[in-house]
Specification:
The protein is of the alpha/beta class. It has one domain: Rossmann fold. About 35% of the residues lie in helices and about 25% in strands. The protein has eight helices and eight strands; from the N terminus they run αβββαβαβαβαβαβαα. Strand 5, helix 4 and strand 6 form a beta-alpha-beta unit. Helix 1 crosses helix 2, helix 2 packs across helix 8 and helix 3 crosses helix 4.
Length: about 200
């Protein structure tokens, strides 16, 4: 039921960064708390990765911005695909462009890794993390996360094994793990009907 509401509520947005002009879709009130959603690495990913989560979060009063990072989708990069430090800097410049002093980051796989790296290196800018199967190989980095984390994982994830979920959740100091039998490498958006209300509760507590 969220898709029909989403298309009524969502609008295109373009945000200037030094790494390229970034395309995104935004839903929710302008004065709502900002949630920036970041997709995974493959070219099949883009702003649409988080589409199923946008309407319910917007209806709860959040301003949800889901983007094509430079080098993906409609966002043409100035220096090639962003990655590592340039991805983190892109996120910070996106937040600046959205006039968001602090924000929630929502990331899938590679986007989850970028979200964690941003949160660890700039903790004052990031209030919460919502992650689905983040591509974090360094568990020690997970121990440095100071923000509350809501983590989703599917048992049938073909990219990062489900067995990694408990290990990662145990390493994060403040983590709530939600697991699903299906959802592949997109547990959160593929199970949005169940996961979105949990995300709203997580952010409101």
């Amino acid at each position: 039921m969220y898709n029909s509401q989403f298309f009524v509520m969502a609008n295109e947005i373009w945000i200037e960064t030094e790494y390229g002009k970034v395309f995104g879709m935004v839903a929710g009130p302008e004065n709502g708390r900002t949630i920036l959603a970041i997709h995974g690495y493959s070219q099949r990913n883009g702003w649409h990765t988080w589409e199923p989560m946008m309407a319910p979060l917007a209806e709860a009063g959040f301003r949800v911005v889901s983007v094509d990072m430079p080098g993906w989708g409609q966002s043409v990069p100035t220096q090639g695909q962003v990655g590592g430090k340039t991805a983190v800097m892109t996120v910070l410049q996106l937040l600046d462009g959205l006039s968001a002093e602090t924000a929630v980051l929502m990331g899938k796989s590679w986007g989850g890794k970028v979200a964690v790296e941003t949160a660890v290196s700039h903790p004052r800018r990031i209030a919460h993390l919502i992650l689905t199967a983040p591509a974090l190989r360094d568990v020690e980095q997970a121990r440095k996360i100071s923000q509350p984390v809501l983590l989703a994982w599917a048992e049938d994830d073909p990219v990062i094994p489900f067995s990694y979920a408990a290990r990662l959740a145990a390493a994060i100091p403040n983590c709530q793990l939600e697991t699903y039998p299906t959802g592949g490498h997109s547990a959160a958006p593929k199970n949005a009907a169940d996961f979105a209300p949990k995300a709203i509760k997580f952010l409101q507590n």
